[in-house]
From TrEMBL:
Its cofactor is Mn(2+). GO terms for molecular function: manganese ion binding; metalloaminopeptidase activity. This is Aminopeptidase P N-terminal domain-containing protein. The keyword Metal-binding applies. GO terms for biological process: proteolysis. Residues 67-205 form the Aminopeptidase P N-terminal domain. Pfam families: AMP_N, Peptidase_M24. GO terms for cellular component: mitochondrion. Belongs to the peptidase M24B family. Keywords: Hydrolase, Manganese, Metal-binding. It comes from the Eukaryota.
């Protein structure tokens, strides 16, 4: 009953052996081969999903889900404008590398994740690439994308590459060249320019080596990092970005809800990890945005506990900190629930205190507040609520309450969220909130200070 088939993706040829000579199967394979050949002649195969190959992911004219190439052109325009405002004199040369494929062992790659700033400015999902912007004093600029060359043998193993012929039209850039030409292009273009490159945290080792070679030979001293300016752009999310982030959060929320419903005594933390991962992927996420914290009992007092190996016991609380990544945008949600389906009175009291503090903090998010101000408010509110619940009884004044609350919540209450989980890391937490920012609000009550609780009680 078995059928052994090999289809040629490059021509109409087919080679099939049917054990029972089924003519209908033969016609079926012939049709597949003809359709494949027709597809290849009408549309170039590229190195990432397209509306033609992945209509379930991309709408017509979208470069990546939710965004057209016009969106990326506008982002590059805004970066050019920001650079000229900051340094109005002279020409600017901006280099943003893609990420490189990382390997967990010999020939076994990790799942590839694109360098966030490169993805934000290009929409290109291929490794071993680089964006070069040449910006004139009037803000006009030329964009060049450096990519891997087409290679039939490598593409047989790793999948198609876009190549330099297709890239300009696909990504809306002015010119595409081989990545091998990058260093010579830098030497040619960088004369009398301010060179913008993240030298401190290089995204790509080989490209960084090319930059080092270029700088050592050119003697250029005008080196700046563009990361802060790019982060300022990324900090304010467009409507399309907000929609993707909302969907990412909904996927994670639903996945955690399903995990809560299916939690049983005797499960391991790793099984709950598997549940939330499964439900996120089944609802459209590519993968989890970070290794989740799945912490039962006292493990929840380890802020970044990711071993997830312990068995869950009767009467314990489970803390899960998880998020997914959807088309380049992340979510970050923390939930706590009782494995026995019911809180003890003390657990219920502490849970409601933290929930009340979170609800009040969300209502206070406005353009008058910064993340640091939210953190200070959190400490005041948490200390007050703990005293009202007689968890803390000896604190004499509000300052003492605030200090005590900090011992129970030893990390910041908020961070920026976006294409990265800890998004736009160069943006200070003293910046006032603005419309379009996305932040987390995550107060906690860590019982690693339970000895203090006992003394206070």
């Amino acid at each position: 009953m078995n059928t052994f088939t090999r289809l040629s993706w490059k021509s109409n040829r087919r080679c099939c052996r049917l054990l029972f000579g089924n003519k209908h199967w033969g016609r079926f394979f012939h049709d597949i081969t003809l359709q494949t050949a027709c597809y290849e002649t009408t549309q170039p195969v590229i190195g990432q999903p397209s509306p033609l190959t992945h209509p379930h992911l991309l709408k017509p004219n979208e470069l990546v889900p939710g965004f057209t190439k016009k969106d990326f052109i506008e982002r590059r325009d805004r970066l050019a404008e920001a650079l000229v405002r900051l340094k109005p004199n002279g020409t600017h040369l901006v280099l943003i590398p893609a990420a490189m494929t990382q390997y967990m062992s010999d020939k076994i790659p990790y799942v590839f994740r694109q360098n966030t700033d490169f993805r934000y400015l290009t929409g290109c999902l291929e490794p071993d690439s680089a964006l070069l912007l040449i910006i004139k004093p009037d803000g006009s600029h030329k964009s060049k994308l450096f990519m891997r060359d087409k290679n039939a043998h490598t593409e047989l193993w790793e999948g198609p590459r876009t190549g330099v012929d297709v890239a300009p039209q696909l990504f809306g850039i002015d010119e595409a060249k081989s990545i091998n030409a990058l260093e010579s292009e830098l030497k040619e273009s960088a004369k009398n320019c301010t060179f913008w490159y993240d030298f401190r945290n290089p995204a790509h080792r080989n490209i960084h080596n090319s930059v080092v070679s270029f700088l050592s030979n050119s003697g250029s001293k005008c080196l700046e990092s563009p990361i802060k300016l790019i982060h300022e752009l990324r900090l304010i999310k467009s409507k399309a970005e907000q929609d993707l982030m909302l969907r990412s959060a909904q996927i994670t929320s639903d996945a955690i809800t399903q995990t809560i419903r299916n939690t049983e005594v005797g499960h391991t933390e790793h099984q709950l990890f598997a549940m939330v991962d499964y439900h996120c992927r089944m609802n459209g996420a590519e993968y989890l945005a970070y290794p989740p914290v799945v912490a039962a009992g006292n493990n929840a007092n380890i802020i970044h506990y990711i071993n997830n190996t312990q068995k869950i016991m009767e009467g314990e609380l489970i803390l899960m900190d998880a998020g997914c990544e959807l088309h380049g945008y992340c979510s970050d949600i923390t939930r706590t629930w009782p494995v026995s389906k019911q809180f003890t009175p003390l657990q219920q009291t502490l849970y409601e205190i933290v929930l009340d503090v979170q609800t009040n903090l969300i209502s206070l998010c406005s353009e008058e507040k910064s993340l640091d101000e939210l953190f200070k408010l959190m400490c005041v509110m948490l200390g007050k609520r703990l005293k009202e619940a007689h968890v803390l009884t000896k604190a004499a004044d509000s300052m003492t309450l605030e200090e005590m609350a900090f011992k129970f919540c030893p990390h910041h209450v908020s961070h920026y969220l976006g294409m990265d989980v800890h998004d736009t890391g160069t943006i200070n937490r003293t910046v006032h909130l603005q419309e379009g920012m996305v932040i987390t609000v995550e107060p906690v009550f860590d019982l690693y200070c339970r000895d203090i609780c006992q003394r206070e009680k």
